[in-house]
């Protein structure tokens, strides 16, 4: 693993620090009038999600970790575990259902997601940015309710509630942004 100087840390870098794997969320480079420059780094632990603020001087050396990204196809769920197939080697891998967090309901059969590994340990998973869902029910819109564009709540086929424009109704397919969990467009 390559070592980098403290002033070379950038947001998104994965670092090995204090025996754990941390991703740099926010980095502020500070050059005080007196003393040496340093980087104030807000980090998030990839294994347990805890946060840490750390100060690295320019001369400090830090291990930068490269994560291996693999495309995995979702097969099925069993006993709180999600079973995926590596699209290159066709090996089956079981991952904890909570690896997707609140975006878990958007996972569909046969969907390909990207999983980040470090030494054969799955650390994080990312769904495609946009997923197509069907609206199950919406509330009716009262005409003349407002002059500005208004949105109404809608229940999707996966049980997630989103707000949609008044012109879409039950039974219609819409595209939902999985990062913001918001309506994007009609499918």
How many DSSP H or I helices?
A: 0
Shape: flat
The CATH topology name of the largest domain reads SH3 type barrels
How many DSSP E strands?
A: 16
CATH architectural grouping of the largest domain: Roll
Taking the alpha carbons of the first and last residues, their distance comes to 44 Å
Radius of gyration over alpha carbons? 22 Å
Give the helix level as a range of percent.
under 10%
In order across it, which strands form the biggest sheet? 1-6-2-3-4-5
Q: Label the structural class.
A: mainly beta
The main sheet comes to:
6 strands, antiparallel
Low-confidence stretches: none
> β content, as a range?
over 45%
* Series of secondary-structure elements, N-terminal to C-terminal: EEEEEEEEEEEEEEEE
User: Domains counted in the coordinates: how many?
Assistant: 3
Q: Which CATH first-tier class of the largest domain would you pick?
A: Mainly Beta
Query: What is the mean pLDDT?
Result: 88
């Amino acid at each position: 693993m390559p070592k980098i100087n403290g002033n070379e840390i950038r947001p998104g870098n994965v670092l090995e620090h204090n025996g754990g794997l941390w991703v740099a969320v926010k980095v502020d480079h500070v050059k005080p009038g007196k003393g040496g420059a340093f980087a104030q780094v807000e980090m998030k632990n990839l294994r347990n999600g805890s946060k840490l603020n750390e100060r690295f001087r320019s001369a400090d050396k830090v291990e930068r970790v490269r994560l291996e990204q693999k495309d995995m196809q979702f097969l099925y769920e069993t006993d709180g575990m999600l079973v995926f197939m590596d699209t290159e080697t066709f090996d089956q891998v079981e991952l904890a259902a909570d690896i997707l967090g609140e975006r878990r309901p958007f996972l569909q059969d046969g969907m390909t997601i990207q999983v980040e590994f470090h030494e054969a340990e799955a650390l994080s998973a990312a769904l495609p940015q946009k997923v197509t869902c069907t609206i199950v029910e919406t509330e009716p819109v009262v005409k003349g309710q407002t002059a500005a564009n208004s949105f109404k709540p809608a229940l999707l086929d996966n049980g997630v509630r989103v707000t949609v424009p008044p012109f879409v109704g039950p039974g219609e397919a819409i595209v939902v942004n999985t990062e913001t969990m918001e309506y994007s467009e009609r499918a």
